[in-house]
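Final report, closing paragraph on structural work. Over the funding period we assembled a curated collection of sequence-structure pairs, and we close with a single example.
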Amino acid sequence: EDHRLTEMRLHRRAASTMALLSTTRGALAFSCASRRGVLKPRGRSRLSFPPQTRRGRVSRATTSQAVTTDSVTQQPPNAEEASGLPSRYEFKSFEESLYRWWEDEGMFEPRGDGEAYTIPMPPPNVTGRLHLGHATFVALQDILARFHRMRGRPTLWLPGTDHAGIATQLLVERAVESQGSSRLELGREAFLERTWRWKEENGGAITAQMRRLGASADWSRERFTLEPAMSNAVTEAFVRLYDKGLVYRGTRMVNWSPKLLTAVSDLEVDTVDRTGKLYYFNYPLLLLVDDDEEDSRLRCLPVATTRPETILGDVAICVNPGDERYGRYVGEFAEVPFVKRKIPVIADEYVDPEFGTGVLKITPGHDHNDYDIGKRHDLEVISIFEPDASVKEGYGKFSGMDRFECREALWADLEAEGLAVRVEENYAQRVPISQRGGEVIEPMVSTQWFVNATEMAEKAADAVRRNEVKIVPPRFEKDWFNWLDNIQDWCVSRQLWWGHQIPAYYYGDHVVVARDEDEAKERLLRERGVHFGAADGEDVFLRRDDDVLDTWFSSGLWPFATVGWPDEGNPDFKRFYPANCLETGYDILFFWVARMVMLGIEFTGKAPFDTIYMHGLVRDAKGQKMSKTKGNVVDPLDVVDAYGADALRLTLVTGVTPGQDVPLSMDKVEQNRNFANKLWNVGRFVEFRLEQLKPPTGGGITTEIKDLLSSSDFPLTDDDIEAWPLPERYVVARAREVASEVAAQIEAYSVGEGGRLVYEFLWDELADWYVEIAKTRNLEAEDGLVSCRALVYAFDVALKTIHPYMPHVTEFLWQKVTKKWARTTEPALMLSPWPTTDGGHEDDAAAVIADFETWKDLVRALRNIRAEYDVEPKKRMAATVVLSGEARANLAAVVDEERAALALLAKVDASALVVATDSPPANAEDCARLVVADGVEAYVPYADLKAVKDVAKERDRLEKQLAKVDKDVAGLDGRLSKPGFVEKAPAAVVDEARASLREKREQQQAIVDALRDLE
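Its predicted structure, as stored:
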């Protein structure tokens, strides 16, 4: 695994080196972009909004109008080439060019009428570069979009990017500092202009990389959270919440980033395991209770802390009320070392008597738990740090020190005062780290803007309880309710410049929230009686709040603001809201998804989507989290370069259930590339058969014959197939069955299971069975035409059901084979309808499938006996197939008709194949007896096996077969004996299980009889 990753990286580096050698400096950027797989938007790029030119978002005239296939005017790449499919599957020759064709022709836009299907894309950070988390959501959401598009629903997968307040500002700040300046020196306006320029030059990289994976999002509607329309929606939302009393400015505990100088959200804090120190010291008491014991500890209480520097901000000592050791001291007072502050000894159930010394120092200004204790006991909150985490003035020698410098200095002074007891080294602790700044987060009490989310959270929780919103998988519901039922007020202000500036205006001691400055003046006049310009004839200056809103506030409006809200009359809003599915990683269920549901219900009265589909994290092949320190990070574009986008997509979505982490193995990626190669080879076989077809009427492929070679757009009927041979009827029936099963799985958001079904159908059934049988059909006779009709139909269904998972290779094969040789209705596979289940022959489909499965079991039994007796590959065996009961009526003619197929697949001598009914052959004693199924047995002469009858060997073979059947019977019996299965499973599934059990028991008895005959 490590060797493969290294090889991919070296390959990319080699490509980079060649680019450097072969390009000028001016072309280098393009070379690197090409090497990274960047597909530049062509023909339908979004408008940009630099500071000087930002206006309202240009609405497209065709936004909510039906788009038809008539608008597709260009031929797909390589369409004019006369040659057929290349002999090798070379994904690099068509993936990018096909994608450009799809996008240039507007195929990603919603088409037709009817109920829409909408997926809002989680907006990646504008600073981002594609990683495996992005690749996973691109693959899953694109599967949903392509599937519903083929199901005939106007499908909108709405893309966009997030302005990423902290990440973007930090990146631009570093660039400014590298040039010897700073953000403060530039000033707000100049710095924002600089940031907008950076966004315009670099902000499209992530979406361009998504195109490499085949993302069929409607890029003509691409949104950006800071574009004017989105900014207007954010302002409107904030003002409405304020007017309702849900937004307020207050002082509370927040996560503070001393490096970024801003409050940050929980999502922007990584809690990591580190080893540190636990400091034990004695806290001096001011008064002593009466006690006969002469013990120096009575003058102090023992305390342990990981942060001695916060002693300066202590306001209480706390013990558990039930702790007999310290209960007598509750109500007494202690003295804070060095600052001589008198603080009380209090009792609170929060204190764990078994942890540390059982005594806590309480610093409400710099610890979340202490803050909560302080509120319960009405304690003073003292903040000892400046915004950069240096100690404030008023603390003597410690003032001006960095918090960690203060820690060492203060501990040294405790030692000098005789208060220090000991230091526990290598103490395991969990430390909050700023995700963007990299420094230790400092809990601080700060004046910020907050949203009271209690009422909104209750509605969001109820939406899931009432099943208005379904979470897939449902195990995340418990976390959903736990978080929403215990929600805290949301700090939404950030001390940044890049973002949505809070629409709050200050005039002296007055503050007002308004949509713009003019409205602010109107509100001040109406609410506070403040007149502007009336007394002195001059306008009075209003100062706007410097802070910006938390990025999660604007992205919380994403599902409805992107389609026109607050203009609820907007055609897009009416058509595409609420959305259907929000697909994302489970790690942001609360920080983003829950807030979208809260805000969606608050502002529109409707939940923003009906399904929340959670995917897991991508891990390495060993299940370990990927990290740079471990050296196991995989760049998805490296994988795309090596194996193709289709192989990576299929790997990321199959083999796992919703919400389950994905172990990424290069072996699995290679396996799925081989699957694409298998699909390619089946396409070449179909093409070859069609080129060689000579219909009985003479001539080549006429228009009439091409009409017969129809795709699944034109359902086959009973009249078409009732006289067809069993294998042809089977492959059509199974193709239709698989199309129906895959559709049901994707509709139920079991995307991985749908992928498994299409994989197995193509590889195990179409390629391994029917393609081989088709080789026995005479292309100059009627059965050749019938075979080609079945082959084209089944291959078309396979391409369509696989297309959502592997769009590039399926589109290319469909253009080269299906569209070229058969009757179709659409210019592209991605616009073709999903295979229909209409056709009129469903009633006997199950019987056809069952009969052919029995025939396959016969082939397997004959193959197995050859392997067990090590028969030479070229040796042909005689065989007698004995059928009785229902099998006699159903299979006798089939076995006889398919002599050529049996000869090919099981190396049977067709001229020595005997089909008998009821009675075994006269030479049964000289034959190996094969129990195939109920009423189906086969006899192979020992002479053809180059062996004499070996009773022990026969018994061993039959006993192994019996053991396998016994296991199958036990499994089915156990399944059917569970009341939950019989009561809850669909009736068809229960009936199928019961039928399988009957068949297995009959086979079990036949093997027992065969063993008895050996005695």
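The chain has a mean pLDDT of 86. The first helix runs from residue 2 to 22. We thank the funder for supporting this effort.
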